[in-house]
């Protein structure tokens, strides 16, 4: 997926205190986050319902008007145990689904701001530098500023983004399963052959979602992109009521989730006929660009070098102006997160990082072509998480 839109299609929780493995995973992550706070000169971290909350606790909730915070003091802080501050209606659920020992509740009718002030005072976090969720609603950040007027503020990504960028084995197992569901859906799309001709983009998108779920996925990682013919030249077209014609390229970009973790894959397919004369050449350029970028992935390589490897192939073929987006983006609980595979990003790749490799060529008014797989950096190079045919037939 090339841009920033999309929902996870996931409800409920990502697991909690049910197994020893889950206990170790989330406790370990909270410990690493507390250590990382010291590295960025912060006294504490405050999360609200978000991907960060899920990453650190395994608990998922939609943001609403009620105050729900995870407070993580820095390592060696005088009061360094994490605390979950939740509405009373979440109390028993949070205790059963997370491994955070200290859960505080407040009831409707109470003043949550006063309780938050007292909690931060108890934790010694009413001053110093505090980090808050990047996506925290302004109403809550304003309340925090009011109850901790002597604190200074930063964003949680300073501490958590480097941790989340390197996936642990629990995360990788879920992402492999989500990628397998997307791969199987691609095979089902190819099997449609000429039967796809006459379907609308929206109908094919619905078919994709159905097949991903049939193969073990849960919902969509983002709204599927199905761009037929000239619509494929719009990288974020989405899908509409255009009917798919025989022989026109169709950009299909989609993903599902397993245990909250997404897949993200693109194949550009031609159903029921031969494509325009120029298309076979364009598709081969994109395929070679993707292969070159994947070959460039190994630990210690700057992220921008992977982008440069793909872009060089496209530029040498004369299509440089038609490659209008970065080569890739990190994928984890968020479909778009660090590391970003783009010119100017000199961050060095590390084992456990997962990101897309998705060069594309877009010829306005004619057609588009994108090929996308997820890769995970290994000690020796990388592992592709997607392994279906990358051809157009």
What would you say this structure looks like, in words?
With 393 residues, the chain is of the alpha+beta class. It folds into 2 domains: 20-164, Creatine Amidinohydrolase, Chain A, domain 1; 166-384, Creatine Amidinohydrolase, CATH 3.90.230.10. Helix content is 34%, strand content 20%. It contains 10 helices and 18 strands. It has helices spanning 20-39, 51-57, 91-97, 112-122, 138-147, 157-165, 169-192, 201-214, 279-295, 303-316; strands at residues 44-47, 69-73, 83-87, 102-106, 127-132, 150-155, 225-228, 249-254, 257-258, 261-262, 265-270, 328-330, 337-341, 354-357, 360-363, 367-370, 373-377, 382-384. The strands form 6 sheets. A 6-stranded mixed beta sheet has the order 4-3-2-1-5-6, with helices on both faces. β5, α5 and β6 form a beta-alpha-beta unit. α9 packs antiparallel against α10 (303-316). 48% of the residues are buried. Residues 3-23 have low confidence and may be disordered.
Question: Main traits of this protein?
Answer:
Creatine Amidinohydrolase, Chain A, domain 1, 393 residues, 34% helix, alpha+beta, 10 helices, three-stranded antiparallel sheet, 20% strand, 18 strands, 2 domains
């Amino acid at each position: 997926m090339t841009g920033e839109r999309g929902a996870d299609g996931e409800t409920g929780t990502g697991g909690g205190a049910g197994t020893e493995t889950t206990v170790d995973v989330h406790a370990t992550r909270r410990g690493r986050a507390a250590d990382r706070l010291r590295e960025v000169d912060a006294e504490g971290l405050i999360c609200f319902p978000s991907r960060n909350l899920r990453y650190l606790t395994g608990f998922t909730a939609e943001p609403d008007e009620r105050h729900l915070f995870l407070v993580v003091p820095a390592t060696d802080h005088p009061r360094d145990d994490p605390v979950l501050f939740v509405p009373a209606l979440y109390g028993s659920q949070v205790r059963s689904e997370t491994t955070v020992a200290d859960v505080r509740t407040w009831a409707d009718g109470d003043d949550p701001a006063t309780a938050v002030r007292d909690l931060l005072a108890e934790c010694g976090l009413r001053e110093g530098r505090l980090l808050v969720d990047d996506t925290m609603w302004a109403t809550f950040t304003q309340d925090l500023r009011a109850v901790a007027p002597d604190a200074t503020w930063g964003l949680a990504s300073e501490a958590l983004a480097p941790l989340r960028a390197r996936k642990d084995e629990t995360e990788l197992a879920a992402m492999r399963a989500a990628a397998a569901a997307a791969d199987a859906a691609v095979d089902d799309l190819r099997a449609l052959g000429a039967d796809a001709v006459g379907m609308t983009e929206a109908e094919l998108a619905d078919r994709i979602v159905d097949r991903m779920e049939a193969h073990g996925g849960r919902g969509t990682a983002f709204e599927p992109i199905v761009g037929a013919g000239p619509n494929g030249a719009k990288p974020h077209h989405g899908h509409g009521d255009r009917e798919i014609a025989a022989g026109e390229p169709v950009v299909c970009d989609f993903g599902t989730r397993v245990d909250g973790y997404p897949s993200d894959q693109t194949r550009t397919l031609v159903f029921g006929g031969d494509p325009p004369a120029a298309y076979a050449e364009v598709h081969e350029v994109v395929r070679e660009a993707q292969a070159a970028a994947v070959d460039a992935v190994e630990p210690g390589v700057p992220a921008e070098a992977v982008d440069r490897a793909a872009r060089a192939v496209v530029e040498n073929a004369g299509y440089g102006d038609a490659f209008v987006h970065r080569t890739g983006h990190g994928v984890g609980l968020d479909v778009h997160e660090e590391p970003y595979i783009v010119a100017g990003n000199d961050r060095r790749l590390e084992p456990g990082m997962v990101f897309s490799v998705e060069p594309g060529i877009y010829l306005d008014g004619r057609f588009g072509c994108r090929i996308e797989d997820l890769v995970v950096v290994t000690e020796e190079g990388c592992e592709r998480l997607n392994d279906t045919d990358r051809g157009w037939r």
